[in-house]
Amino acid sequence: MIPQSFIQDLLNRVDIVDVVGRYVQLKKGGANYMGLCPFHNEKSPSFTVSPTKQFYHCFGCGAHGTAIGFLIEYSGLGFVEAVKDLAQGVGMTVPDNDDRLPPAQRAEQQAKSLALSEALTRACDYYRRELRQAERAKQYLIGRGLTGEIAARYGLGYAPDGWDGLKSVFPDYEDGALVESGLVIDRAEEDDARHKRYDRFRDRIMFPIRNTKGQVIGFGGRVLDKGEPKYLNSPETPLFQKGSELYGLFEARQAIREAGYVLVTEGYMDVVALAQLGFPQAVATLGTACTTIHVQKLLRQTDQVVFSFDGDGAGRRAARRALEASLPYAGDNKTIKFLFLPSEHDPDSFVREYGSEAFAQQVQDAMPLSQFLLKEAVGDNDLHTPEGRARAQFDAKPMLQALPASALRLQIVRGLAQVTGSTPAEIEGLFELAQPVAQGRKAPPRARRAAPMGLERQIMRLLVAHPVLAAEFDEPAQAAVMRLASEHADMFVQLLTICREMGVNANFAVLAESLREISSDFDPLIAEIAADTESDAEVVRLELLGAIRQARLQAIKGELEQIAGGVADEAAKNRIRELMMQQDQLRRQAQAETGRRD
Predict the structure, then answer these.
(1) pTM of the model
(2) CHC2-type zinc finger positions in the chain (predicted)?
(3) 35 by DSSP, 3-state: which?
(4) Residue 575: how many CB atoms within 10 A of its CB?
(5) Pairing mode, if any, of strands 197-199 and 262-265?
(6) Same domain assignment for residues 82 and 147
């Protein structure tokens, strides 16, 4: 787990304007920066970035967050990945309990990664230049229906038909980074080899593979004519693992948000061809089976994933592997479907023959995960016999065990029970499903408590917006607000404690990131502050002091009423006099403050 102190230090060093500005065109507008929201379609800018709050907010769709939150939402990175990305940009190293490498060795690894990245970028630029003058390659792409605009968007290039074309851009052709990045093959140990070192990709259309940050990490190369292999991929390298990356995801992110789903296809050409035909939300696995990491990445971008496979045997096997990879992440708020096109068609040919509307309808009518799972379980088993029904249950067991406990799993269990002549409770018991839904007694849902109101809300709102004001709370002030907050006293104490721990360097962005991990109770306050205009620190401080005085006055009034209803002994009389003096002092302070403002 990354220490909170590191997150605070990181957000204090990072400028959110620079982070967001790498992806969104921002213009200065008053105290803030404005731009078109990257999270929804809009023609006039409603997306603001506050350098003071170090926070972004969209008045159109309500999206808001810190620099970390922006990278998570925009790039689909996980929390740790986003933190590491930001840290790298400001020269910080994320503490990692599992990382036992000495600093010198870690620095060596980072330098090697940088060398590989630079080599791949230079090669990508070279391939793109070569495509401009390669008529045969251009005619091939034109024949596939691609325009120059699509080729440029995906950075397509051409590797010339020569053994060492990369020598023209890498004067040191013996550089080890060329081999380690997968650009060059070295066979120096083979004495009889005609070419001891040569380009891996020759006479191929080049598809650069980018990570979620847009960096080139590998290539896929397609032959122009007949030849084997039809597609040639970069080998596994420190930058490129096929089971973790998806072709076209970087280019498709905005289109995925707009369409509301991502379409997973089987090849590079499917992706670019679909983008040309009006489906830019397509991505592809990299010549390997779909993995759980792929599914995780996809579900960070959207709640709906549609896998598109050929209807032949190979397509069915690929779909089964995608199903198995998806099961741990299938839930009530996620939709995963499987589209099987006729065996004579891939997505590209289907759209060209039947049109975009027909393909969109195919996507809409794709088979839901629940139906595909049951179909796979039933298979060729004869459900008219006990053996066939038992076999169907046997085949379904590992898939159901992989599903998280949810309403979706319950629906699938009910479907399986129906076709195999069992009850849902029997299926859950027989399969030893974790957290049984059908047979388990569930505790009643905990009612979400009402949000803070009135004066208590005002105080907490000011403290969230300006956490350094925690220094204004002495013991009487804290006790008064806790009494005022009543039901939300724990929420207030939690907030005050975090603010104090952050100290004098506390700010809204750092606090918001901390509160996000603790409780969703603070979300409405954070969203409201994110949308609010900038405020003068001294004015806010005086507003808070006034609110604290009101809280203390209310606490004093409550205690006086409580004493008045009891025994009027000497101790009670002394306490009344003490409270009256405090009350008078607070009122004079308020009058003096009003006089200074006037």
Answers:
(1) 0.69
(2) 37-61
(3) strand
(4) 14
(5) unpaired
(6) no
